[in-house]
Amino acid sequence: MSTATPVLITGDEQLLIDRAVHTALVRARKVDPEVERREASAVGLSLADFAELVAPSLFAEPRVVVIRGAHEAAKELATEIISYIADPVDGVTLVIQHGGGARNKALVDACLKVGSQPIQCSKISRPDERATFVRAEIKAAGGTTTSDAALALVEAIGSDLRELASAASQLVADTGGLVDDAAVRRYYKGRADVTGFAVSDKVIVGDIPGGLEALRWALSVGLAHVLIADALADAVRSIAKVAGAGRGNTYQLASQLGMPSWKVERAQGQSRGWTPAGLANAVAVTARLNGEVKGGAADPDYALEKAIMDIGRARRMK
Question: So what EC number does this one have (predicted)?
Answer without folding.
Answer: 2.7.7.7
